[in-house]
Amino acid sequence: MLWLPLLAVLLPLAALAGERPRTNFLLHCSGCHQPDGSGSAQNGIPNMKDRVGHFLRLPEGRAFLVQVPGTAQSSLGDGETAELLNWMVVALSPHAVPANLLPYTRDEVARLRATPLNDVAAVRASVVGRLQQMGYKIE
Ligand code: HEC
Q1: d(Cα 56, Cα 88) in Å, to the nearest integer?
Q2: Is the CB of 69 under 6 A from ligand 1?
Q3: Which atom of ligand 1 is nearest to the CA of 28?
Q4: Is the CB–ligand 1 distance for residue 57 below 6 Å?
Q5: Per-residue pLDDT for 45 more than 90?
Q6: Does any ligand 1 atom lie closer than 6 A to the CB of residue 70?
Q7: What is the mean pLDDT of the segment spanning 8-17?
Q8: In degrees to the nearest 10, what's the CA dihedral of 80, 83, 86, 91?
Q9: How far apart are the first and last CA of the chain?
């Protein structure tokens, strides 16, 4: 496992360069979501490209991005998860970010993570339905 010590050196360096959230996304999320966030419709992985930022327009949508199992159940800490989500919405979805974007904080992530979703699909459908009514393009 030569890459493990290498990673131990590269990750702090990456953080210094502001690259840590991108590296975490590539390591922990992109296997399912693809590096550009486009996902895989036939495998039930939603397309986040220029869409995921819309979720931040509603408090339930903001909570959903933390509570969805891929985020909530990753091995990342609460602070790194907040940093990752703050990076992700802008990097993958630059044209859907609300103007009054408030960054996630570590405490907010910790609080939301402690309340898992019972029915992921139903919560998503309800949030997406409301966003569509508000005129935002998201499927
Ligand atoms: C094993 C595959 C897998 C991994 C790894 C994964 N996800 Fe996901 N993700 C999914 C699936 C499947 C969904 C659809 C909702 C569901 O069924 O959980 C999803 C949905 C999401 C959503 C909601 C997007 C939407 O439009 O509804 C977000 C946000 C998200 N994931 C973030 C992450 C983050 C951040 C990571 C890494 C820390 C991650 N996911 C890792 C499979 C994965």
Answers
A1: 12
A2: yes
A3: 37
A4: no
A5: yes
A6: yes
A7: 59
A8: -90
A9: 41
CB 117 less than 6 A from any atom of ligand 1: no
Ligand 1 pocket member 68 (CB < 6 A): yes
Please list, residue by residue across 110-124, b when 16 or more beta carbons sit within 10 angstroms of its beta carbon and e when fewer do. eebbeeebeeeeebb
Of 28, 24, 27, 50, nearest to 37 by C-alpha is 50
Is the per-residue pLDDT at 4 higher than 80? Answer: no
pLDDT digits (tens, 9 = 90+) for 61-101: 999 999 999 999 999 999 999 999 999 999 999 999 999 99
41/105 Cα distance (integer angstroms): 30
Q: Label residue 7 by pLDDT band (50, 70, 90).
A: low
The predicted pLDDT at position 3 comes to 61
CA 46 to centroid of ligand 1, rounded, Å: 8
